[in-house]
Please model this.
Amino acid sequence: MKITITDKNKLMRYIKTILILVVFSFSFNTLFSQEWTIEDPDIVNPNAFNQETIDLGSDLYEANCKSCHGDPEKNNGNALLVPLPPDMASEILQKNSDAELFYKINNGNKLLMPFFSTSLGEEKIWQVVSFIRSFNPDYVPADFVEAEKTELALGQKAVIRIVIQDKEEKIYANALITEKGLDDVPIVNTELKFYVKRYFGNMEIGKAKTNDKGQAVIDFPINIPGDSTGCVDLIVMMSDNPEQVNAVVENAQICSPNIPINIFEKRVMWSENSRTQWWALLSYGFIVVGVWLTILYVVFQIIQVKKLSKL
Amino acid sequence: MAQSLPRDEAKKRLDKITTDLFRPIIKHDHISHLWVFILLLIIGLGLASWFFQIKNGLAVTAMRDHVSWGMYISNFVFFVAVSLIGSLISSIMHLLNIHWAKPVSRIAEQIAIAAVTLAGLIIITDMGRPDRFLNIFLHGRFASPIVWDVTVITTYMVISALLLYIPLIPDIALLRDRLKGIPNWQQKLYKILSLGWKGSAAQYKKIYHSMRILMILIIPVALAIHTVTSWLFAATLRPGWDTTIFGPYFVTGAFVAGTAAVIITMYVYRSRYDLQEYIHDKLFDNMNKLLVLVLLVYLYFNINEFFVPGYKMKTADGIHLRSLFTGTYAPMFWMVQIGGLILPIILLVFKPFRKPAPSLIISIFVLLGAWFKRYLIVIPTVQHPYLPIQNVPESFHTYVPTGIEVSVTLFAFASAILIMTVLAKLFPVITIWELAEEEGIDKDLLNENYDH
Model:
């Protein structure tokens, strides 16, 4: 069969149309590729949700995920990709269940998101899931059993021992019940509030719940100025015991090298007094001196009135 | 000045004047006790709120990153404004020889003292760390309008105090000589403050001389205090503040607020202390005419302030003006402009409205309008910066004063009123020797028959 030029053109047009359709449907598919079918929605994370698994997951994330998804909480995923890979802390990602996250990492979506079932394997994928969950403050691990809150009995005394880790810039507070002749009992699952004593009031620097060892950790704001020796007084309170009737805080003074600036010391951001415009200084000085000399003259007149009374 | 009165008649008249004007000082009834008690109660509540604010920080106010000037700054501008009346009535009117204004000059000075004291104090309530007020003296920069403002407020406070005290000296001597049956401390106070006044011609000469100097001096200082206050706003680049007429705009607005405050005080003193004979209807009539005059001048400045940018509606100014004209602040804006400016002008043109009772009500509206006007000058502008407010919590966009702010504001008002109450309870509210002079009573009579 001989193909004429017109037929050839027709064919070319036909091929073009098909190509456009294919490309279009491909990109369409890419844009709306959020449909996933989860094989087993009931599987749970076999790892404990703790700092250890999170740290392991973090390393895996750096190596395998970051190039497309970017740094968590920074929304800096690879902008060349459509659709943009979501941020780990984003709501759209966090609303997935653990099983969904696992499935998606494991299988990929056959378009942009690759599958990791072979390269990472089940255990490591779960570690990545733990890492992802660490950006969700509302996340409750599946195996989470809320530790029973320690209630102080009448007459029991709580001691909060403060340990400061200079290098980590963290404050550890160990809350314990101490009774003579008995072992210390940790106060668990109790919120501690941390304050720093200032001139006029207490400034809250953080709050944290005690873990099963009775320990709560907060970051210490290292730039906080102390007194003349560079020390600040720390106040720790149990949130539901604000009067702190039966708690003693030990080692509550933190000494950092931040000695406040002497109030007479010069501190200038960018504009010094020496740079006042000469005409402004001259006008100001002239007016102030002139007015106050006049006032002094009037005061002198009043003194004269008193003197005249004695004549 | 009236014709000299015959000696006997003059003596009788002087006795009547002193009896009438000493009455507020002697009068200590339940109402005055209750009044002071209520004021102290409000002050106590306000001080407690202030203490709470110092302890917990400025977060207890509604001020945030963008609205960092709130109700406290409006209060400050309001009190500075009200204090300006001292210069208008006891200085400008005096120098112009307007005799009818003489009886109100002490009232005006009382208001000036009370208001300028509170203006200085209220600015400290706006500080999260009041101890840092010292920094203005330790590290103040002479190129900063804030340093000029602190200087000029202090100066004005001193001049106002002197201008209250110097005309008081002969009156304090009268109190010392004629007032019997008062507590010991009060007698001692009068004795010290009267400087052993004898009423000699040389002493009067010194008094006249000092008063004249202060009256001239206070005019530029008074203009400066409110012009510099306006520069705190006008020297920054913001829609609504970036205008050249802010100085005179503030000064004329100040005369409106102060005149209204004087009329209210006149009414209170008159009815409370039975001073109808001295604070008479004619005085109200004249004061209200003065109020119309200053209102008209202020209206003129308002037209300039809003018409010119309103005609152009430049981007940022347009957003700001729309919020005033038709937006969030429209109800307050039109209440202030109509209820505190246009309606009072129209009403006060008619004589019946210049009678004491109606003019009291009108003046209350004018004074309230003046306060809300300051609120409208300060807050809508900080909500509409040139660069849009972005990426901040929702609460940063709006500003509704908290109970703490309202309570501290009430403290300021109660304190100002308490200062005036104390002054009225210690010294005559009208200058007796000037009044005697006006009525043609020989000055010698004032100090006759009293040995000291």
Notes: The mean pLDDT of chain A is 78. Chain A is about 35% helix and 15% strand. Chain A touches chain B at residues 199-201, 203, 263-264, 266-268, 271-273, 275-277, 280-281, 284, 287-288, 291-292, 294-295, 297-299, 301-302, 304-306, 308-311 (CB under 8 Å). Residues 51-133 of chain A form a domain with the Cytochrome Bc1 Complex; Chain D, domain 2 fold (CATH 1.10.760.10).
